């Protein structure tokens, strides 16, 4: 049985991987840093460090990027949810990334629909960080890259095998004899990926930080779930807490819970253990592990709480 300390990943202790994905050498994307915090994540590199290997029905990760750095177009078959911890980010989607886009500010959360190609870019002036919630225990099994991403990566020495592993010719690596290159989607296959207009995405899949602060004045705001602001069943639920959202009552979750502070410091007590969570920290709580949680200092305080559900981590995109 792991201790509470072993299930907390501090923001300052996050270990990045700069070779996590197929576009690691592609100009404009080659400064990305990928973080796998809970679960196996979606990294294609053996260099990826995993902080907590438990898989509570979903994965937690993060992406850090300097200004003007982008993550290339890809699609997921399970949920991909981001909230902006630091900076200003442009999310875009469609086969060529031009079907729709919007700008996310700090604290905003985006439940990106499955089955569409998406990417994101740091459009701020400083290093930015977005925190990720990925559906399912095996989040890496459902990632598909747009054809142009695979082709451009090959031109810069990176080939993705059909075993999901990257091979870098700059390091003298070649595909093993029993591994073939990941096939590129055909035009017919690409036609199955919708070009979704922005007006069909933002109202249904985006929640703004200031709105959540207003909604969480006396109790937690339900962000993602069947009866939440963003109605969905991605295999987990998300709610949002601010200063006055919780009292002093003891909470005993029936399933896994992950606490992810956005602003301020939060005092957490589990049994006889007490600690303080800061912005960017991640804490995994086990089923039946009773806890109390409250802001520990004055000033702005906010926190995203992710709870495991029995729902399958399936498709989220449906026609309006």
From TrEMBL:
Record Gene3D superfamilies: Jelly Rolls
Entry-linked Pfam families: Cupin_2 (PF07883)
Lineage: superkingdom: Bacteria
Leader sequence segment: none
InterPro entries: Cupin_2, RmlC-like_jellyroll, RmlC_Cupin_sf
Domain Cupin type-2: 67-130
Protein name: Cupin domain-containing protein
Lineage: Bacteria, Pseudomonadati, Pseudomonadota, Alphaproteobacteria, Rhodobacterales
């Amino acid at each position: 049985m792991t201790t509470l300390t072993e299930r907390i990943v501090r923001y300052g202790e996050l270990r990045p991987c700069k070779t996590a994905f197929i576009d690691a050498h592609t100009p404009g994307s080659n400064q990305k840093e990928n973080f796998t915090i809970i679960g196996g994540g979606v990294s294609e590199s053996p260099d990826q460090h995993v902080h907590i290997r438990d898989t509570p029905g979903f994965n937690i990760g993060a992406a850090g990027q300097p200004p003007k750095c982008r993550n290339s177009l890809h699609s997921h078959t399970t949920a991909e949810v981001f909230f902006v911890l630091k900076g200003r980010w442009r999310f875009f989607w469609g086969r060529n990334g031009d079907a729709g886009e919007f700008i996310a500010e700090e604290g905003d959360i985006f439940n990106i629909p499955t089955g569409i190609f998406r990417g994101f870019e740091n459009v701020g002036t400083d290093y930015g960080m977005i925190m990720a919630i990925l559906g399912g225990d095996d989040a890496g099994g459902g990632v598909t890259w747009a054809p142009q991403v695979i082709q451009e990566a090959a031109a810069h020495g990176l080939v993705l095998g059909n075993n999901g592993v990257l091979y870098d010719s700059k390091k003298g690596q070649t595909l093993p004899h029993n591994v073939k290159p990941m096939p590129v989607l055909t035009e017919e296959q690409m036609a199955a990926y919708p070009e979704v207009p922005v007006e069909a995405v933002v109202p249904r899949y985006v929640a703004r930080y200031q709105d959540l602060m207003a909604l969480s004045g006396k109790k937690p705001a339900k962000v993602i779930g069947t009866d939440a602001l963003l109605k969905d069943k991605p295999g987990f639920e998300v709610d949002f807490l601010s200063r006055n959202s919780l009292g002093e009552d003891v909470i005993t979750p029936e399933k896994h819970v992950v606490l992810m502070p956005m602003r301020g410091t939060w005092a957490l007590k589990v049994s006889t253990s007490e600690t303080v969570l800061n912005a960017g920290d991640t804490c995994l709580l086990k089923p039946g592990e009773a806890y109390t949680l409250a802001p520990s200092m004055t000033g702005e305080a906010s926190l995203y709480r992710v709870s495991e559900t029995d729902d399958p981590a399936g498709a989220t995109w449906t026609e309006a």
